Amino acid sequence: VHYKVVKYERIKFLVIALKNSVEVYAWAPKPYHKFMAFKSFGDLVHKPLLVELTVEEGQRLKVIYGSSAGFHAVDVDSGSVYDIYLPTHIQCSIQPHAIIILPNTDGMELLVCYEDEGVYVNTYGRITKDVVLQWGEMPTSVAYIRSNQIMGWGEKAIEIRSVETGHLDGVFM
Question: What region holds the CNH domain (predicted)?
């Protein structure tokens, strides 16, 4: 189970990746003070392992999720599900690490990290940069930090990279 809390305008959303579905809850203020069911997307072809919610151009909600096959999107309004990135150069299943919504892109561009690399795509599945972020070693986890950088924790080191270019900014051994 993986979850993410996302604030959009004055509404908090809780997005949860379950066994074969993604659930979206919205925070209900007084008198309820709890998350209430908003949308449910069941019977997904690919099991969600990682989940994120983006707001495209300030108006369209999209669930982005990672699976062992790649990365997928769900349009919250229509419920349509489609692939945004499937790493076809890897024959077996992948380990998705992170879905990072790039700053200053109106929620439209992402850095999706899996295995020992990351790819820049938009929410419709088009590659947006001719750059593949390449980690020095396979990270066990990846996190976005507010300084426009990402950190990848490996067995031997922690790498810090620019989220915009993928270039190495620093290493902790």
Answer: 1-173
pTM equals 0.92
Label residue 74 exposed, middle or buried (CB < 10 Å: 0-12, 13-18, 19+): buried
| Residue 146 backbone class (left: φ over 0; alpha: ψ -120 to 50; beta: rest) | alpha
User: 101 vs 45, 76, 105, CA distance in Å?
Assistant: 23, 17, 8
pLDDT, tens digit, for every residue of 13-45? 999 999 999 999 999 988 999 999 999 999 899
Q: What is d(CA 42, CA 116) in angstroms, rounded to the nearest whole number?
A: 30
Per domain, the residue ranges of the chain are 2-134, 138-172
* Residue 161 structure tokens: 């990279």
Residues 6+ apart with CB under 8 A from 95: 68, 114, 115
Q: What pLDDT shows up at residue 88?
A: 86
- Are 48 and 4 in contact by the 8 Å Cβ rule? The answer is no
**What's the CATH architecture for 2-134?**
7 Propeller (2.130)
